[in-house]
């Protein structure tokens, strides 16, 4: 068995920016074993690049010297050591990235792509929905025109946040603006394309309920993060009133037990674990089983880079109760696709499952070397990093 000998955090940036501020950076982890095997994982960037970079170095202390082929055991060792794992996003994302890299190594050592290690695929290709496609969309016609392009690319589902600069509350003007954008997209794509409404956890329960009442006539498949992430009471209130629409959430979950809170209380209909902060493959696959046992569908959150995307494809291949996988892939800056030699193209709304051992794609080490930067703070400006760029605006 090979020991973990090196864990290196790597921050990548490039002048070509993504469709959201956070999308212009990637944080990778390179794990090397005593017999020279190399695995890669990806952590969450957003507004904590420096913290995550440094936390990876601290979490690595728990993994160095351990058996590379034991991701499950290694996860629980760090879980025991880090008193605050379930309260620390940095620790959760660092652990998740290292865990991904260990599954990559495991697959390479056994000569099998990760989906095979998980019991094999239940589908031959992965259906995806589009996100990131509506940069600079402000007027309803902007959303409509961009949505038509997405459908012409072959996508059968698209997600967007129609709420401009509203936060906590939404007033009649905001409801009218959101409705105009959603109506324009529905009219542009017709009723055979799934529309998914992203709230980014902006609202209090009363506002989220008012939004649901206004938008339900456009038949959205789900309402994502309608209330603030930690507002369990607000979500209970929302679910008790809004019975005709499904709730999707999960991108901010950092543990299996946290997922259980929402699944156990029937507060989520489509769970969206993110393999870069839920606990990697090791925990991600457990959340999926919990969801299956409770008739909750799965749609992995998948918003960061091409390494995360590859792992999300593997898990999506093995999940019977998959709704769709999220994809920014066609709206990544090209450098993110170059890192994996653009091996996971979206074709007519579907992606082939990566078949090489481990992560399943080849890693462009030269591209990684050429884009390495020192971690630094991101500016905090009026438009938050978590919206698609140029959309934090009114039009009326
Ligand atoms: O559902 C999603 O893809 C997310 O909400 C993104 O839109 C966020 O911007 C990102 O996850 C922030 O880190
Ligand atoms: Mg989201």
Automatic annotation (TrEMBL):
CDD domains: MR_like (cd03316). Its EC number is 4.2.1.39. Keywords: Lyase, Magnesium, Metal-binding. It catalyses: D-gluconate = 2-dehydro-3-deoxy-D-gluconate + H2O. Pfam families: MR_MLE_C, MR_MLE_N. Transmembrane segments: none annotated. GO terms for molecular function: gluconate dehydratase activity; metal ion binding. Residues 140-242 form the Mandelate racemase/muconate lactonizing enzyme C-terminal domain. It comes from the Archaea. It is an enzyme of class 4 (lyase). GO terms for biological process: amino acid catabolic process. Belongs to the mandelate racemase/muconate lactonizing enzyme family. GaD subfamily. This is gluconate dehydratase.
């Amino acid at each position: 068995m090979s020991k973990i000998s090196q864990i290196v955090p790597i921050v990548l940036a490039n002048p070509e920016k993504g469709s959201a501020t956070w999308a212009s950076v990637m944080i990778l982890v390179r794990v090397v074993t005593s017999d020279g095997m190399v695995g890669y994982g990806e952590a969450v960037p957003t507004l904590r690049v420096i913290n995550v970079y440094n936390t990876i170095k601290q979490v690595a202390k728990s993994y160095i010297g351990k058996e590379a082929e034991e991701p499950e055991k290694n996860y629980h060792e760090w879980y025991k050591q880090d008193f605050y794992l379930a309260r620390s996003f940095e620790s959760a994302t660092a652990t998740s990235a290292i865990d991904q890299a260990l599954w990559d190594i495991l697959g390479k050592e056994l000569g099998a792509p990760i989906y095979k290690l998980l019991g094999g695929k239940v589908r031959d290709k992965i259906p995806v929905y589009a996100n990131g496609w509506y940069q600079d969309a402000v007027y309803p016609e902007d959303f409509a025109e961009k949505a038509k392009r997405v459908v012409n690319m072959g996508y059968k589902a698209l997600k967007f946040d129609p709420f401009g600069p509203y936060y906590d509350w939404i007033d009649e003007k905001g409801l009218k603006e959101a409705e105009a954008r959603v109506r324009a997209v529905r009219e542009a794509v017709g009723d055979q394309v799934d529309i998914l409404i992203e709230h980014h956890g902006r609202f209090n329960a009363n506002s989220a309920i008012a939004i649901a009442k206004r938008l339900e006539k456009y038949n959205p498949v789900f309402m994502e993060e309608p209330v603030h992430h930690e507002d369990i009471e607000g979500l209970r209130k929302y679910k008790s009133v809004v019975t005709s629409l499904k709730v999707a959430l999960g991108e901010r979950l950092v543990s299996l037990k946290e997922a259980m809170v929402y699944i156990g209380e029937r507060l989520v209909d489509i769970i969206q674990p993110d393999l870069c902060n839920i606990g990697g493959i090791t925990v991600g696959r457990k959340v999926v089983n919990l969801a299956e046992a409770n008739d909750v569908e799965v749609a992995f959150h998948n918003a960061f880079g091409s390494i995360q995307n590859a792992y999300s494809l593997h898990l999506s291949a093995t999940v019977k109760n998959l709704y769709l996988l999220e994809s920014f892939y066609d709206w990544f800056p090209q450098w993110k696709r170059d890192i994996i030699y653009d091996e996971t193209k979206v074709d007519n709304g579907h992606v082939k499952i990566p078949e090489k051992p481990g992560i399943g794609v080849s890693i462009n080490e030269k591209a990684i070397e050429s884009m390495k930067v020192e971690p630094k703070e991101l500016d905090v400006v009026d438009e938050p990093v978590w919206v698609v760029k140029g959309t934090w605006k009114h039009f009326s």
